[in-house]
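Revision sheet: structure tokens.
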Amino acid sequence: KWKASTNPPDTKEIARRLIDLCLVSVLLDAGAGNTWTYHEAESGQTFSRSEGLGVASINMFEDGFFSGDPSNPYQVDAAGLINATTERTSQAMQVTPENPMIGIEGRASLLTNLASALKSNATFFGPSARPGGLLDFLESESITEGTTRKVHISSLWGALIEGLAPIWPGRLTFGGASLGDVWPCAVLQATAVNEGDELVPFHKLTGWMTYSLLEPIEKILGWTFEGIEEMTGLPEYRNGGLLVDLGVLSIKPGSIPASFYPDPDSGIPRLPPSHPAIVEWRAMTVIELDRIADLIRQKVGLTTAQLPLAQILESATWKGGREIAKQKRPASGGPPIDIESDGTVF
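Predicted:
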């Protein structure tokens, strides 16, 4: 569509637009709940969960929802994001009292907070205050070997961790800095020696964002990212749910009071992200994903470079977690442990 326009963008601008789209899509893609759906008028289809969120994000992008420049709708910039109120975001995502979405306020807050982050971090996002400005920063961090431009994954990860730090809700602070998706783990406190030893960093959405941005940059521009094997798995409820549903992990009997079970017959507790069981579940998920990846590679005879963790997450653990959830809980397809989400963590 872009290439067929009267004023087609060059290859770098196409990559910038895809970075724009991927970044806001990840921010909007926290679990929407079991009841929300999105109807796409053009296709006549109705979608739910991740598919619905993805289709909604693309349609919002094409409608210029994230752009502050009417003449350039296919972009995300600070001027457009500042207007992403809960009311406008709800309308764009078809959220109503009859079609509720978990954490719609949190999602809208992330978008408006992103506007401030883009403006205040020109080093990463450039003078245009767009996520796509990351491309110029990464180019400055790259090296060229022959005809191939190479970038270490730490440059992208560092830009996202530092550049997007202001968008996350204020939870824990350490050294005066808000930590985002970092939580104290009660079982580590007994062995903690230094301040912060009991904290477990997850940064799930930032990790997902990093994985998501690799493909458009590599495929559109032909760049190569090095050090991808240093990335961890994503500690979210599909990967973690697979481990619980298959019996690899289980909640210690009697450790969670009955008040956390809204429907005792279901056997599914509902817990906040800060609950020790959720923190331990997510931490063990990161560890087990590495173990699963190693076992799969051994089974198929491939190296880490040939079968990176990102591919295993997409094709095996995340998909597997979703499929077994549908089998075990066909009415909802939800996880075996329910999480109170505000749309900014999962």
